[in-house]
Design goal:
single chain, 329 residues, alpha+beta, 7-stranded mixed sheet, elongated, disordered N terminus
Length: 329
């Protein structure tokens, strides 16, 4: 980000110098040359770290689209990201242009979404049509399972954010490829990658906004359960949500593990229920056994008396949706 600001300062200095030169020569009334800003494709070509992406865009026949007026937001995998795919898969995709185009357009969002906007989102609809999950934390921003490594590379028709992995839409059928790693190995690789993300308990502990929730889970003896295979969907109250309870409530619950367990399991649903699924529901059965009502009103989703404020924080054994109120069964 600071490098971009430096570029703007340099550009401003150069612009002022041109104006000063023009004013100093009254006899020179010629208009200064205007350089057309690069498109997102030009930017990728010039950067040199996206040769595979550019080749894929060309093979899929998307050059004209991505050099159009836009604006577009492109989450651009580096050459290293493509190289991390199973051996032979890139070559197979370059031959299967329909699947390739579907994957590439999953990396593109209509409109110019700058980094300051991305961190406020929990998801974005791709040009391909599916929803990309977005999660922001103190460690950075993730789109699906990819880390955003560089932001706000501005082009004349949009913006590029660099990511360290190729992201795939749900249900995509990959072409057969003759490398040593088959689809089964790819699934195992993705499982290992998700394992690095950590379980629901690990993610909550690492986020820093759920210290009371984590302490409660430990006090209720639920760490092993929520670190198990799952998958689970957890509606996670923040520390502020617990602080809003009547004075002494949290301390009392930490002593009454039976009541604490009943409350905590009321926040958990068996299975992975992503935001796109939640908004289609009117209720969900919790691990506690009680039914949790769900109400959708425009962009607002409520579960019980709580508002969902962040969605689709992925863990290796499920997903977390952040809520602003502790739910009481």
């Amino acid at each position: 980000m600071s490098r971009f600001r430096n570029w703007r300062i340099v550009a401003l200095i150069l612009a002022l110098a041109l104006v000063a030169a023009a004013c100093g020569d009254d006899e020179d009334n010629s208009e200064p040359a205007v350089t057309e800003p690069a498109t997102v494709v030009d930017l990728a070509v010039d950067a040199g770290d996206f040769t595979t992406l550019v080749a894929a865009v060309e093979a899929a026949g998307l050059v004209d689209t991505l050099t159009g007026e836009g604006p577009f937001t492109v989450f651009a995998p580096t050459d290293d990201a493509f190289a991390a795919l199973p051996e032979g898969l890139v070559d197979a995709l370059l031959e299967d242009t329909d699947t390739l185009a579907e994957i590439l357009t999953y990396h593109v969002v209509a409109g110019e979404v700058l980094a300051a906007d991305v961190v406020e989102l929990s998801e974005a609809t791709s040009v391909q049509g599916d929803t990309i999950a977005i999660s922001a934390s103190d460690d950075g921003v993730m789109v699906d399972a990819a880390n955003v490594t560089t932001t706000d590379l501005l082009a004349g028709n949009g913006v590029v954010h660099v990511i360290d992995a190729v992201i795939l839409p749900d249900g995509i059928v990959l072409p057969e490829h003759g490398g040593d790693m088959g689809d089964e190995s790819m699934d195992e690789s993705m499982d290992e990658e998700m394992a690095e993300v950590g379980t629901i308990v690990d993610v909550a502990a690492g986020a820093g906004d759920f210290t009371t929730l984590v302490a409660a889970v430990e006090a209720a003896g639920l760490v092993d359960t929520l670190s198990g295979e799952g998958p689970f969907t957890v509606f996670a109250p923040t520390d502020e949500a617990f602080a809003a309870l009547p004075e002494g409530t949290v301390e009392g619950l930490l002593e009454d593990t039976e009541a604490l367990t009943a409350i905590l399991t009321y926040h958990v649903v068996a299975g992975e229920v992503l935001a796109a699924d939640v908004v289609t529901l009117t209720e969900a059965e919790t691990v506690n056994g009680a039914v949790l009502p769900i109400v959708v009103d425009g962009d607002t989703v409520m579960v019980g008396d709580a508002t969902v404020v962040v969605t689709d924080i992925e863990a290796s054994n499920g997903v977390i949706h952040v809520i602003d109120t502790v739910l009481i069964p």
